[in-house]
Amino acid sequence: MKEQEKYISSRKQSETQNLRRELQEEQTGDLRLRRTIIGLSLVGMGAMAAVTLFQTGVISHLPDPPLKDFDSDKVNSSDTAYALGVPDGALSLMSLAANIPLAAFGGADRAETQPLIPLAAAAKSTVEAAVAGWYFYQMAAVEKKWCGYCIVGAAANWGIAAVSLIEAKKAWRSL
């Protein structure tokens, strides 16, 4: 029995080391896309962290570019921003953060070996891109002001969705 336990332990250690090597060192197209998702998520999180600090009263003002149509304070204090009972910046921050473990999950060949992961990631990011589009519309049509932080967050979500669909297409074919 101890030999079997040693074999299982050794095999798990080998799989772990292989995953670490793949994620850190391999340069496959899919891994480059997944790294792009992580980078875009972190950029979006930076923007949404600032919005969350404002929306929760940690800071009292969001600086804007010196353009008359920008008013991040107004956009992020709107009824729309609080309509779900929690500031939308905090929800967006959480959602962007969730992209990181999704992008990091699995080895280089996960589209073939674990196709449901990239499909779930693409479904999630596509919904979020649509929501970002709706919020973008709200800035223009309802608030009639722009929020640079929100624009960065929306662009990050759109980029994440576009990139995730590439791996999802490959995963779909492997089903």
Automatic annotation (TrEMBL):
Keywords: Disulfide bond, Membrane, Oxidoreductase, Quinone, Redox-active center, Transmembrane, Transmembrane helix. It is a multi-pass membrane protein. GO terms for molecular function: oxidoreductase activity; quinone binding. Coiled coil: none annotated. The chain crosses the membrane at residues 37-62, 116-140, 146-166. InterPro entries: VKOR, VKOR_sf. It is found in: Membrane. Gene3D superfamilies: VKOR domain. Its main location: membrane. Residues 37-164 form the Vitamin K epoxide reductase domain. The keyword Transmembrane helix applies. GO terms for cellular component: membrane. Belongs to the VKOR family. This is Vitamin K epoxide reductase domain-containing protein. It comes from uncultured Pyrinomonadaceae bacterium. The lineage of its organism: Bacteria, Pseudomonadati, Acidobacteriota, Blastocatellia, Blastocatellales.
